[in-house]
Amino acid sequence: MKEKLVRQFRCEHCNKKMYQRPAMAKHELHCTMNPRRECGVCEMLQEVQQPIEIIKNLFPSPRENNDPSPWGTFSKECDAALKELRKITECPACILSAIRQSKAVTYEFDYKEEMKSVMDDVNEDR
Question: Quick one: how far is CA 68 from the chain centroid?
């Protein structure tokens, strides 16, 4: 039988686990749950990163558990806030960060598709 002790590093913001300190440090710096994150996508797009507190506060506060339909109207309010957010930033990572940190519910945002579109534009410009 073999036994091996390893160090495990956990993100302070999202609880993701990794086994290499430098990889976790890089993750924490860009983690979408980190309120002081540095956005690599904004940097790549040469865009000014908007303060997370401003973009996060565009979303309404989460509903209380006793609301009879917590997702229906809340989702519509969040979709409206998403439209306002797109006027401030086009960065998919910043939008995802605002959605996650505000605990918003929106079905109009597809991070994978948004990033594909951004990367297609970046690759076209090269």
Answer: 28
* Structure tokens given for 46: 């040469």
Distance CA 116, CA 88 (A): 20
CB 33 within 8 A of CB 14: yes
Q: Can you list the alpha helix ranges (DSSP code H) found in the chain?
A: 21-30, 40-45, 52-56, 72-88, 92-102, 111-125
Residue 37 and residue 30 in contact, taking contact as beta carbons nearer than 8 Å: yes
Q: Are 98 and 54 in contact (CB under 8 A)?
A: no
**Predicted confidence (pLDDT) per residue in 9-32, tens digit:** 999 999 999 999 999 999 999 999
Q: pLDDT per residue over 76-85, tens digit each?
A: 888 888 888 9
CB 59 within 8 A of CB 104: yes
